[in-house]
Amino acid sequence: MARDDVNDIENIDRSVGGTVFERFFTGKREAEVVAPDTYFMTADYVNLVAFETSEGLLLVDCGTKEAGPKVHEEIRKLSQAPLHTVVYTHGHLDHAFGLQAWLDAGERPRVIAHENVAHRFRTYMKTGPMNSNINKVQFGIQAGLAWPDREEDFVWPDTVYRDSLSVVIGGERFELHHAKGETDDATWVWAPERKIVATGDLWVGMLPNCGNPQKVQRWPEEWADALEAVGSVGAELLLPGHGRPIEGADAIRKCCFDTTEALRAIVQQTLAGLNAGMIHEEILATIEIPEHLRGNAYLDPLYDRPEFIARNLIRKYGGWWNGHSAHVLPARMAEQAVEIARLAGGVAPLVARARELAGSDLALACHLAEWAALADPKDRDAQQCVIEVFKQRGDGEISLMGRGIFSHAVRRAEAALEEMGG
Fold first, then answer.
1. Which residues are CB-contacts of 40 (< 8 A; sequence separation ≥ 6)?
2. What DSSP designation does 63 have?
3. 361: number of CA atoms within 13 Å, CB side?
4. pLDDT tens profile 13-43
5. Is 230 helix (H, G, I), strand (E, B) or coil?
6. Spatial CA neighbour of 378 closest among 344, 405, 338
7. N or C: which end of the chain has fewer CB within 10 A?
8. Nearest-CA neighbor of 149 among 162, 165, 174, 131?
9. Rounded to whole angstroms, what are the CA distances from 70 to 50, 112, 128, 392?
10. Backbone angles phi, psi at 99, to 5 degrees
């Protein structure tokens, strides 16, 4: 995992593949020693870190409910020190729900998290089905995760903090720092005596996921600030919540500062557009990563896209109206589609034009195919056209977010054809 030459850091993640899951699933499935008394493993795409001290273990994240027993088993192969403290880097299902296996084994650790984690857990209790449906679309899975909906489904933090917290375990100091990034409840952990930083989802080895089209507000400005802080502490080993560790102070600084610069560029471009009175689509057309950063693998838009990040900023600073007056109180899309088809002379011309455009303008082809299927949901050729153009769009889309939504359109059209009998 080490890189002696900081110039090689651009390729550190691209070498393992070009999808989100190839980047995420790069740690070892077994716990490994990555530094003295420091253990690291990957379970269900999420990384766990355990720091052993003379007083016990500090566990940074605990994985999913399903992976919890495996995490416990693997860490116990390397250490029998009691579990002293657990830190949730945030309240997502893949990071903060695997502790039950430790409790079942008789461990009674202190659980520390930012004060917003409890609010996230309560939100999950209200929106489980919604989140399950979102993940079906986002990840292209048939069955969403079972989201907890009862208080007893959560291992609640018993110690919370607001800005920062210093804890001493076995005479060793660990610094916890709050950040906003993918979530508003994030914590990164700095072990100054070991020169190790555990970042949770603040570092994932690709363009930060701070524009997700289906989920709550993300925080690109604050994410940039957090990465600048992480890159400034002098860490010699960065252990992320997903993907591979980064070794070397220079490499860590470069990764963090480059990502900070990219995020701030998106913020600056978006605010400039808003302040100039541009409508949303005009702003999105201006968004780009600075040219000197585009070759960096850790800024690949594999999860999120710069345009999606800009949309989140627009949502944060402005209203939802996109600037087109008809859209403030619009006719239903299905009603619009029927009228468009009538003007075109029927569904068939829309389908034909969509297929014609598929070779030159897929974005426009998708509009036409969607209108055709909405105008006449029982038209087999219209549904088949949706499958064709959205599959082509999805195959060419680099971001997981975009690909998931395009693939969802394909699955809906396939379901419609199946309902019609083939």
1. 27, 28, 31, 32, 34, 47, 48, 49, 50, 239, 245
2. B
3. 9
4. 566 566 777 777 655 678 999 999 999 999 8
5. helix
6. 338
7. C
8. 131
9. 14, 22, 25, 39
10. -80, -15
Confidence of residue 8 (pLDDT cuts 50, 70, 90): low
Is residue 28 a contact partner of residue 42, using CB atoms and an 8 Å limit?
A: yes
| Structural element, H or E, at residue 247 | strand 246-247
For residue 85, the 8-state DSSP code is E
DSSP per-residue string spanning 184-199: SSEEEEEETTTTEEEE
Helix 220-232 vs helix 306-317: crossing angle, to nearest 10? 110
pLDDT in tens, 273-311: 999 999 999 999 999 999 999 989 999 999 999 999 999
Three-state helix/strand/coil letters over 295-310: CCHHHCCCCCCHHHHH
Cβ–Cβ under 8 Å, residues 47 and 240: yes
Determine whether 7 is exposed, middle or buried from the number of CB atoms within 10 Å of its CB (0-12, 13-18, 19+). Answer: exposed
By residue count, the chain amounts to 422
Residue-wise burial string across 44-81, b where 16 or more C-beta atoms lie within 10 A, e elsewhere: bbbbbbbbbbeebbbbbbbbbbebbbbbbebbeebbeb
pTM flag (> 0.90): yes
Cα(100)–Cα(218) distance, rounded to whole angstroms?
29
Complete domains list, the chain, with CATH = 6-262 (3.60.15.30), 331-419 (1.25.40.880)
Contact 271, 316 (CB under 8 A): no
Judged by DSSP in three states, 149 sits in coil
Report whether 98 contacts 68 (CB < 8 A). Answer: yes
Using the predicted structure, report yes or no on whether residue 326 has a pLDDT greater than 70. yes
Contact (CB, 8 A) for 117 and 160: yes
DSSP 41: E
Question: Is the dihedral angle over the CA atoms 208, 210, 212, 214 positive or is it negative?
Answer: positive
To the nearest whole percent, how much of the chain has pLDDT over 70? 93
- How far is Cα 216 from Cα 407, in angstroms, rounded to an integer? 21
Q: Going by DSSP bridges, is the β-strand pair 32-35/38-43 parallel, antiparallel, or unpaired?
A: antiparallel
Query: How far is Cα 393 from Cα 409, in angstroms, rounded to an integer?
Result: 10
**Coil, strand or helix at 420:** coil
CA distances from 238 to 87, 222, 393, 421 (A): 16, 19, 36, 54
H-type alpha helices, 19-154: 20-24, 68-78, 100-104, 116-139
